[in-house]
């Protein structure tokens, strides 16, 4: 039976591995890299548990996704005497369980010794791992899980495309990791891997960073959608043609081992999953053990959401849950893989076409839902990305998201179960109740641009210019120092002191009676029918989706705080502006109801053109 190396036992030295070592090895003794000996060392007597996020093996999923028939563990060790034991987790495991009879012992030795241990696998096992119980210092190197398989490995040419805009430090570091740990690895992937860096900011040293396998392409600022589309075209036209393209954000930290495992999974994949999309997880850049999402879905209410609840990947029970989770029927119909780490077969792109020219936001969700693929996800396939609260941008959430979801649904039929008109209505009302008039107007700008039809969005430069305008007219946040100065100039805010503000106050709310809730609903916080001037102020978060209803009611001023970025703004209740925005909204709704059938037909008719190579090559100035 042929065998291939599938996953290296991963030990790293970086901020995340140092802060969250139990994502790699769970022990009460350190595992440290010895620079002089160029080897990893388990430094003292103890039990070292490798049934972790990066070093357990997802046997249940490998049996489902691939032609794997058996699994084994290869270890190279030297030092004190030690015992290696297989462990496992089933659907109800809170901790790794010992697999009886699968153990190997080594006597103390100053020479490297090898263990090749076949693993016992049963139908109940979700993940397997191993422990090394040492009697003293033990070094480890060149260790990995191997897979027995029945059949032929697939030929894979993997292209990686990343789109960047003035994030040189992130992208240069990732290029360095790719060159050092993939292209110079000596593993099979090194001869079948190409990286495309689409530089929308034109700030990178293209000549200095590029080589035979890494290509930096200076590009116009066409957003993530345009950048990733160029990567797709490059991958389709390279020689030999790529079989798969891995799309990855620029502002991420990645372990090259995730990319290696992605390549190996593609080589082993069975016929059932040959056309599947691999969806890598987004882990929190600042809390590296926390998983935000690996597969997302579009909710009936028209919002983006992760299929799984938040998981802590240093907890064994969450590692198991991460593998056995089954999406609901509602989720399955509208799932997508976000493009922070998403691997798509080139044949899928040829069949379904290229993305829509929407600049940023919803391009990945639309594409994933459009393709209706099977999905593969797995512990250890991931990137680390800044969490969403750290990068809230009203130009994205109120303009781009509103416009692009509507365009996507009308053009390709994305998320037919989602009501984006409901989401529009909800967001406008929410912003108005919180006196976020500029952001409510962004929602209407987006709606009106959708109403202009596909001829508007298909124009070169429009997507960028409209996003730039949205960033210009959105609510302006100022530094805490400037915010305090602004507050000091308003007599009614005399008591406001940023030094006395903390997250408990910013994120807090107050209960409302049933009568108060009804009053707020009818009057939009005292701005229609029964109008009130309001009095005093409240402090609330900047996040658009937050609704601290009890805190904001009957207030004249709202001070919004972005505590993470130490910025904020002062909002003032303005019933006249409320009325103007509502009149504009009602006018837009009348136009929409009158022309919606025509608009949907025009967008649907434009699909083939907007997703064609010919259109995109002209758009990207590649022809």
Biggest sheet descriptor: 7 strands, mixed
Into how many domains do the coordinates divide?
A: 3
Beta-strand percent range: 25-35%
* Biggest β-sheet: strands ordered side by side in the sheet: 13-12-11-14-23-16-24
Number of helices: 21
Shape, per Cα inertia axes: globular
Distance between the termini: 49 Å
Query: Mean pLDDT, as a whole number?
Result: 96
* Annotation, overall tally of beta strands: 29
Radius of gyration: 27 Å
- CATH architecture classification of the largest domain: Alpha-Beta Complex
The class by helix and strand makeup works out as alpha+beta
CATH topology (fold) name of the largest domain: Spore Coat Polysaccharide Biosynthesis Protein SpsA, Chain A
- CATH class value of the largest domain: Alpha Beta
Oligomer: single chain
Helix content class: 25-40%
Which consecutive residue ranges, at least 5 long each, have pLDDT under 50? none
Topology of helices and strands:
Elements: E1 3-8, H1 15-19, E2 31-34, E3 39-42, E4 46-49, H2 59-65, E5 68-79, E6 82-89, E7 97-106, E8 109-118, E9 127-134, E10 138-149, E11 158-164, H3 168-183, E12 193-199, H4 206-209, E13 214-218, H5 223-237, E14 244-249, E15 252-254, H6 256-268, E16 277-279, E17 281-284, E18 290-293, E19 296-298, E20 304-306, E21 311-312, H7 316-324, H8 329-333, E22 335-336, E23 341-345, H9 346-352, H10 363-371, E24 375-376, E25 382-385, H11 394-412, H12 420-433, H13 437-451, H14 454-457, H15 462-473, E26 478-479, H16 480-488, H17 503-506, H18 514-523, E27 537-541, H19 549-552, E28 557-562, E29 567-572, H20 575-610, H21 613-619
Helix pairs in contact: 3-6, 11-12, 11-13, 11-15, 11-20, 12-13, 13-20
């Amino acid at each position: 039976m042929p065998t291939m190396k599938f996953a290296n036992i991963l030990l790293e030295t970086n901020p995340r591995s140092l802060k969250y070592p139990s994502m790699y090895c769970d022990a009460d003794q350190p595992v440290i890299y010895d620079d002089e000996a160029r080897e990893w060392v388990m430094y003292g007597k103890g039990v070292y548990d490798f049934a972790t996020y990066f070093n357990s093996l997802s046997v249940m999923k490998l049996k489902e996704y691939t032609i794997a028939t058996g699994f084994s563990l290869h270890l190279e060790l030297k030092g004190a005497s030690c015992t290696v034991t297989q462990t496992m987790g089933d659907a109800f495991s809170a901790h790794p369980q010992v697999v009886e009879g699968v153990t190997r012992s080594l006597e103390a030795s100053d020479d490297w010794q090898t263990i090749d241990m076949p693993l016992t696998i049963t139908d109940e096992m979700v993940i397997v791992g191993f422990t090394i119980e040492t009697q003293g210092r033990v070094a480890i190197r060149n260790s990995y899980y191997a897979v027995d398989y029945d059949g032929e490995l697939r030929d894979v040419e993997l292209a990686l495309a990343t789109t960047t805009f003035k994030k040189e430090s992130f992208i240069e570091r990732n290029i360095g990791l790719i060159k050092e740990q993939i292209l110079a690895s000596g593993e099979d992937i090194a001869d079948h891997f190409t990286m495309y860096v689409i530089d929308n900011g034109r700030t990178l040293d293209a000549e200095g960073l590029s080589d035979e396998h890494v290509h930096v392409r200076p590009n116009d600022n066409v957003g993530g959608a345009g950048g990733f589309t160029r990567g797709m075209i490059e991958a389709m036209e390279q020689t030999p043609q790529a079989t798969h393209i891995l799309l990855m954000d620029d502002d991420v930290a990645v372990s090259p081992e995730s990319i290696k495992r992605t390549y190996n999974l593609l080589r082993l994949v069975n016929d059932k999953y040959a056309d599947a999309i691999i969806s890598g997880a987004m882990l929190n850049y600042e809390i590296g053990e926390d998983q935000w999402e690996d597969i997302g879905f579009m909710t009936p209410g028209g919002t983006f959401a992760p299929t799984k609840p938040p998981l802590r990947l240093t907890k064994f029970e969450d590692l198991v849950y991460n593998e056995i989770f089954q999406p609901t029927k509602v989720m399955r119909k509208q799932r997508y893989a976000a493009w922070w780490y998403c691997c798509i077969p080139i044949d899928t792109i040829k069949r379904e076409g290229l993305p829509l020219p929407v600049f940023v936001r919803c391009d990945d969700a639309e594409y994933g839902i459009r393709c209706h693929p099977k999905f593969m996800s797995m512990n250890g396939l991931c990137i680390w990305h800044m969490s969403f609260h750290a990068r809230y941008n009203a130009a994205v959430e109120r303009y781009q998201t509103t416009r692009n979801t509507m365009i996507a649904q009308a053009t390709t039929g994305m998320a037919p179960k989602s009501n984006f008109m409901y989401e529009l209505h909800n967001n406008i009302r929410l912003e108005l109740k919180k006196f976020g008039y500029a952001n409510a107007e962004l929602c209407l700008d987006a709606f009106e641009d959708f109403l202009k039809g596909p001829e508007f969005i298909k124009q070169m430069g429009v997507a960028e210019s409209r996003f730039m305008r949205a960033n210009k007219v959105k609510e302006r946040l100022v530094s805490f120092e400037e915010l305090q100065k602004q507050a000091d100039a308003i007599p009614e805010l005399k008591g406001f002191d940023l030094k006395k503000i903390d997250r408990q106050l910013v994120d807090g709310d107050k209960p409302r009676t049933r009568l108060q809730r009804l009053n707020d609903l009818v009057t939009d916080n005292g701005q229609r029918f029964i109008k009130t001037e309001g009095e005093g102020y409240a402090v609330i978060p900047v996040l658009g989706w937050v609704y601290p209803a009890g805190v904001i009611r009957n207030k004249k001023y709202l001070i919004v705080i972005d505590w993470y970025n130490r910025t904020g703004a002062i909002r003032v209740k303005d019933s006249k502006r409320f009325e103007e925005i509502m009149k504009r909204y009602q006018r837009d709704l009348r136009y929409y109801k009158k022309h919606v059938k025509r608009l949907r037909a025009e967008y649907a008719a434009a699909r083939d053109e907007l997703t064609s190579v010919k259109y995109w090559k002209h758009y990207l100035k590649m022809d």
